[in-house]
Structures are given as structure tokens and as C-alpha cells.
Amino acid sequence: MEPFAASQNSTGLGEATSNDRLTVPPSAFQRTAEKEHDLFVAEQAYRRFKGKAENRPWLVRSTLDPLHGVDLKPGNPLHQVIKGLLDAPVLQRMRHISQLSAGSWVFPDAVQPRFGHVLGCAYLTAQLLDDLRPRVSEGIQKQIDQYGKAVVAYALLHDLGHIAPGSHVAQWVWFPQNSDAHEIISRKIIEEDPGFRAKLEGILGRQGVNDLSAMLREDGSVPQWTWQMITGGGWNTDRGDWVLRDGHFAGVKYGDYDLAIIQKYLTITDDGQFAIEEEGVDSLESFFRARADMYRQVYGHRTCKVGEQMMIGLGRRARELFQAGYDLPADAAMVEVLRAKNVEDLSLATVLRMTEYWANYHIDAWSSCSDLTLRELSTRILTRQPFKRFPCDDERHKILLKLVTESGLDPNYFLYRMEPKPIDLAKDLRNALKVKVGGTLVPLTQHSATMEALDKVAVLKSKPFLAVPMDCFKEYREP
Ligand SMILES: [Fe+2]
Ligand SMILES: [Fe+2]
Predict the structure, then answer these.
(1) How far does the centroid of ligand 1 lie from the alpha carbon of residue 269, in Å?
(2) 78 and which of 39, 126, 372, 406 could share a cystine (Cβ 3.0–4.6 Å)?
(3) What is the rounded CA–CA span in Å between residue 106 and residue 450?
(4) Considering every ligand atom, which ligand is closest to the CA of 167?
(5) pLDDT of residue 251
(6) pLDDT of the residue at 55
């Protein structure tokens, strides 16, 4: 392993080195409460200048969304929450976080950012709350009036904490020893960013922001349906959106299901549980199949998994070099990330800097560094060169190990034994929303024979496989 040449630091990327602790400057996505206030004052003045009456605070704002045709109405208080928060910098940051990481390695148009998903999820939630109102008891109607705005805000903000590269995979790239913490980061942003907090309090009130925090923690101070609707088991507005959206952008039919029917039969029971009427169960079954298919055919596609593994290898190598004291091209935020033990050690400024631009800036810089492993991984990620896959057996493993070693690459980084994570259907079905039959709630697996059968399949497993770069075969001779 060679240290980086001194000239590496004159690329313009090297103002921070692995040996300096630099303060991460505020991110473009941070705003002070004063700045937020100034913008509010400016907006009022602008409205007066344009001759917009106070009772007509904003124009109908239509967003061309391929799934829900998002159309925000000025007179709708739930839509006002979406409109009010949409331009907050921390939300606009979602435009720079990829929804599917290496998804586009297989499905070329699956490059959608998370912004469309969170907007879709919030719109769907607002629509659902309006649809539910006439169908639920008076007590639940009052709860919708009390918590509705915070629930819509929760839907819009539930994924704020995703980081690059590629949302979920980023957690394994930077903090492989920890579990996915994007929900913890979402809370951190909501609770620690003073400008955003001020904006949120302006829209939801202080109690509304406290309710929102309680929903994020799924704690008992708010009715269960308030968070079950967004993140509960079975169908929720988060999954309800991404199954359709990711299927749409991947160009597959697997994610398709009848959302309108599910929406029509969802309900909230008098004791505050999110549930579905019997008539909606057939459509719910098709949703479960759609979701399982998306896992198997899109998210779990083996080429995408290899791409993600290469990104994880990239993070591991960068950390290894950093810890060994090599002069790694890294900005101050990257230095903080490579030093951190877990995501909770990161400052807010660093978390907000971790967009796809930031990750790609470093991958591009590393693609011309002097460390062979980091350079090769970066180049292969940028130019989409997934490792080739082989069935997993000892004989093949021995040959592939020899080929990788002879080609001068480190098998720790260029020979993978991939064991796809099983999909635990049974666990999800156990936690799924229940079916309302007359006055009682029945578990979905008891009510539906298809769901009972799916429950018995329990875990969908894929076979393990080996993966190595194709060019290792350059010198290969048949034995
Ligand atoms: Fe999420
Ligand atoms: Fe989400």
C-alpha cells in the first residue's frame, strides 16, 4: 500500500487532510431562525407589492407527479402544511438523495430522488385523512382535527435523515457495524436545526411539533393511528407510495396494485387503530404480492446488490486508509464521517452535507488516487462495472481467489461471497394492520387464505453467489 503522493493535495480537494480536524462549515441546507424570519417578512412585502390579498396567501400549486397528480389546494389546511414546508432547505435537500442507489445499474431510469417520494407520501396522507373523516366516529374526527397537520408533516419529513450514497446503503457504507439510523437522523434534523424548527412551529404550533416528535418515536402520548398510517405494519402511506413509485421508475409492472380500492376501505377504529374493512382485503393481498415482488425483482436484483457491495467496500477502504494516516482527498465533512463510530457522532452540518453531490465528488477524486483498491473501486462505481456473478461452491471460490490475486487485486475487496438478506414475510404479516369485521379486529392471516399461505412461506431466500471483476479472467487458461 503506498501513501498518497503529496501532489494529491493540490487537486483542490485537499484543503482538509486526514490529520487535521477542521470545523465543518454550515451546510447550504441550514438556515438560522433569524434568516427564516427575514424571509417571512420579505414574503409578506412581496405579496403586498404583487397585490396579493392576505386572505389568499398562496396560489394553487400543482406539481406534476406521475402517480398522484399532486394538486395542492389553498383552502385545505392539510395541503397548507405541505405547501408551507416544501421550500424548507432541509426538505429541498431530498432532491439530492437517490431513492434506489444502484437501482439504475439495472433499470436505467430508476434515478429518482427521494423528494418525489416524500411529497407523494404526504399528499397521499392528506388525501387519506380527508377521505377518512366522514367514515370514522366523532371521537376520531376530533383526533384528525387535532393531529392531522402533524401527521401530514410526519409523512413529509419521515425520510429527512437519509444520506448519500443511495439512502439505505449509505448506512452500511459509512457505519457498517450499526443498524440503519435514518429515522434517528430525521429526528436530529427536526429537533436541532433552529431555522427549520422555527418554521415548523409557525405551521404546527409548539404542541404540534411535540406531537410530531412523539410520532417519530412512536410513543404513547399520541394515538397509534397517527404513526401507523405512515410507518405501521402492512400497508402505510410510505410503502403505499414507494412500491408504486419505484416500480414506475424502474419500468416494471411488479409494483402495481389498486391503491384507490385500499384507500376506500381503510379506516380508524374507535379505539384509535389503523385498520382495513373486509372489502379492501383483496386489494391489500395484491399490495403484499407487489411489495414482495419489488424486493425480489428490483431491490434484491443481484447486479444492484453487487453495486451496493462495491460501495460498501469503497467506504471500508476509505476508512482503512484514513485510519492508517494516508493523505486521503477528503473535505472536512468526510473527515468527520471517516472518524465517526456511528451516525449519532456526526454534527448536523455534516449530516446535511452528505448528498449525492458530496459522495460523487469524493468518489471522483478517489478514482485518480494512488491507492489501487480505492482507485479501482471508485472507477468501477463511476463507470458501472459490476463484478460478474458465479454460483457459490468451494471449487469455484478457489479458482476465483487465484485469479483475483494473480491480477494484483486484493481479494478482500474484489472477491465477494454474497448472501442476499432473506425477506421475512411472516414478521411483516404479523405486524400488519388488522381487518375490521363487524365490531372486532381480526389478524390479516386469519381472515385471508392467501395471506395465511404467504405467512407459511415465511421467509423468501435467495441463493448465495460469488462475484469478481470480469477482467480477472484476462490471463485465464482452461485447465
Ligand atoms: Fe424511511
Ligand atoms: Fe419513506
Answers:
(1) 25
(2) 126
(3) 31
(4) 1
(5) 96
(6) 53
47-62 pLDDT tens trace: 888 887 655 545 445 6
Beta-strand relationship, 274-277 and 266-268: antiparallel
Which ligand has the nearest atom to the CA of 122? 2
CA 228 to ligand 1 center in whole angstroms: 13
Mean pLDDT for 275-304 is 93
Is the pLDDT score of 64 beyond 90?
no
Residue with cell 389498486: 258
Please tell me the least confidently modeled range out of 99-103, 234-238, 455-459: 455-459
User: If you measure from the C-alpha of residue 237 to the centroid of ligand 2, how many angstroms do you get, rounded to a whole number?
Assistant: 9
Taking the C-alpha atoms of residue 252 and residue 411, their distance in angstroms, rounded to an integer, is 35
Q: Domains in the chain and their CATH numbers? A: 77-296 (1.10.3210.10)
Whether residue 385 contacts residue 455, with contact meaning beta carbons closer than 8 Å, is answered with: no
What are the residues whose beta carbons fall under 8 Å from the beta carbon of 306, sequence distance 6 or more? Answer: 102, 386, 387, 389, 416, 418, 467
The reported pLDDT for the residue numbered 62 is 60
| CB < 8 Å & 24+ apart, contacts of 447-454 | 447/278, 447/281, 448/281, 448/284, 448/285, 450/285, 451/285, 451/288, 454/288, 454/289, 454/292, 454/425, 454/429
| 261, three cell numbers | 380500492
**Nearest ligand to the CA atom of 237:** 2
Q: How far is the CA of 20 from the centre of ligand 2 (A)?
A: 36
- Stretch 95-107: mean pLDDT: 96
Residues 479 and 476: their CA atoms lie apart, in Å, by 9
Whole-number Å distance, alpha carbon 121 to ligand 2 midpoint, is: 7
Q: Whole-angstrom Cα distance, residue 309 to residue 5? A: 28
